[in-house]
Amino acid sequence: MGKTISELGEDLFTLLSAIVNGGDEKVPSDPNTFISWCMPGLPFEAADFGFCAKGFGGGATAEEEKSLMQQAYALATWVDFIPDASAAYTGDHQDRVWRTSQARLSHMYGEILRQCRVADNPLSEAELAQLERLRGLLRATRKNLVTGAEVLIDSPVMEAYNQYMADYIAARTEYNNKRIAAASAQGPEGKAAVADFFLNGTLYQMKAANALRRWEALGFKNDVEEIFATINNLTGRSAAVWRQKLLDAYEESKVSGLGPGQDFFYTTLLPGNFATSKGWQEYKHTEEHTTEKVRSTETSWKASAGLKWKLQAKASAGGSTKKESEDLRTEKFAISFEFTQVVIARPFFFPEFFMNRGWTLEKGKGWMFDEFPSDGGSPPKGLFVAYPTTLLMARNIVIESEEIARHAETFKKDFKAGGNLSLGLFSLSGEYGKSESGRDYQLDIQGNRIVVPGMQIIGSVNRLCGKSPNPFPGLFDEAAEPVAEPAPVPVA
Questions:
Q1: What pTM did the predictor assign?
Q2: How far apart are CA 357 and CA 465, in angstroms?
Q3: Which residues are bridge partners to 152 per DSSP?
Q4: Where does residue 99 rank: exposed (0-12), middle (13-18), buried (19+ CB within 10 A)?
């Protein structure tokens, strides 16, 4: 009987959600995250991420250094968005986020810092010195060799923290992948997945646990999180000094691009060599897979409810849809690809500010927006409900389906030049997202197989900000009794 494209897509969404953000008692999930899917994915060439591996100053020539700067600008622009907890990033939504005027994360974060009212119980000289020392442990400066300007970057401590966090995410994803593959396996093809997890499940669990221990021992996990907590405790009484330091860091992270109007905030991805790394997880799904055993672990708003996969052709990236099909039924279907998660590092952005309860916003008094950042609901509503922490990447995509291949061939012939073809999460042919080469990418149809070149961003994992602002009761009520101060923090 087979399944429709829409039904296959629903299965894939649920399985991928469980792999990325799912968990069990051995490798628990994070309840404060959700996934935004790209519909379709955003394709890139590996060369587009050279900056992540080399950074500023990594070019052998002035020409290469300028190329790295252009890559840095493009990357910072593409990940500078505020996730929408209620919608996936469909083609039209992507246009609004990345090509038009939707508020960007960097801008809204700056507005919050500038316009918030903060508690201002003066800190002692010793506490101010401690605050400055802790800030110095998290950030450093580096000179841009082209412009000569100093740019704020992550300190070696934060670099290690983010790098080992990326390693832990990769190990946890591998464990989830193997567990879900075994739980959803059916038929002769599923025997290998069941046997693999039966024999090696404890090894995958040990790998994830070891990655967590390495993050704690070598990646300063506990130290960095203690720094966050200490800063939060200090600034809960006087957020004024901290707010000014965050504004200074915000401005110090701004980079002047080579083109007019190309100022941006320094951003990179970790691990820096992910585009050429061999450490991607292999993933395969067939129409025989069932997701009932994992479907109950996903909440409705976190599981991309209502999203419909379809085979879709457009005249161009921004053009109107010409042909699409979500009811196409395929008797035999398989899709395979390599998958990884990469951490977004933003030295200008201090998300722990949203945990602090020593600030507020007042409509009409600096804050001129209709909504506050987040109401903390489920799903949350507001102008800054979450921020993307990692990007979900897929590469070497192979689709096996006689029916889909036949329709794709027809669509391809109808749009001989400049056409964009996609299947659900995956872009099959069209324009690269921000390639310097200027090339298009084309799918290769081999009988009932569709081979897609390059890599794609297919989504992001996002961290919820919680209710923001969320000041201590009475803190900004002048008529109220003074709020008791937290216990003083020992000076290290």
A1: 0.78
A2: 12
A3: 141
A4: exposed
Q: Which one-letter amino acid corresponds to residue 117?
A: R
Per the CB < 8 A criterion, the answer to whether 330 and 280 are in contact is no
pLDDT digits (tens, 9 = 90+) for 17-62: 878 876 666 666 677 888 888 888 888 888 889 999 988 777 778 8
Rg (CA), the chain: 24
Q: What is the DSSP secondary-structure string of 317-329?
A: TTSPEEEEES--E
| Contact (Cβ atoms closer than 8 angstroms) between residue 388 and residue 461 | yes
Distant-in-sequence, close-in-space partners of 181: CB < 8 Å, separation ≥ 6: 193, 196, 197
Between CA 431 and CA 437 the distance in angstroms is 11
Q: Which amino acid is at 253?
A: S
Please give the Cα distance from 102 to 37 (Å, whole number): 18
Is residue 362 within 8 Å of residue 372, measured between CB atoms? Answer: no
Contacts of 278 by beta carbon, 8 Å cutoff, 6+ apart? none
Cis peptide leading into 469, omega within 30 of 0?
A: yes
For 139-181, write each residue's pLDDT tens digit: 888 776 666 667 778 889 988 998 898 888 888 888 888 887 7
